């Protein structure tokens, strides 16, 4: 009985390892943004992901990842330093921005998907929807958010705190066709 259990466990582990080898992984990612009211463009790096992408059925995928607040860049050293400070993003206390998908739905457009999930900035969790378009081995996502919803009050009016975000995920081995 014990031998059969061990063989069953080994079989399951082997199947999982083979499946994982065929599943696409995210080989690189870029996250860029535009602070609309000031016309400021920037990027944020240090991307890490534990996403599970099913190349045969993207709707069954799970997207999750993080970026490092310390890597935030806008092309102005003083502004970057200020944004990372306690007054805004508070990089020391909250070093990561996190995203975890809850649902992925196909839209009426070919290769376009709506990804709903939870975005965590400064420990504040908010629901968000991203629209991703599949282009070969890339997934291009866009969304917008208001920094004031995450206790980052750059301008007084909420509408003046709008940020447009673009995410480009490049898939590695086993990429989508």
Automatic annotation (TrEMBL):
Coiled-coil regions listed in the entry: none
Transmembrane segments: none
Domain Lipid/polyisoprenoid-binding YceI-like: 15-170
Record's signal peptide: 1-19
Keyword tRNA-binding found: no
InterPro entries on file: Lipid/polyisoprenoid-bd_YceI, TTHA0802/YceI-like_sf
Alphabetically ordered keywords of this record: Signal
Protein name: Lipid/polyisoprenoid-binding YceI-like domain-containing protein
Organism, as annotated: Euzebyella marina
Lineage: Bacteria, Pseudomonadati, Bacteroidota, Flavobacteriia, Flavobacteriales
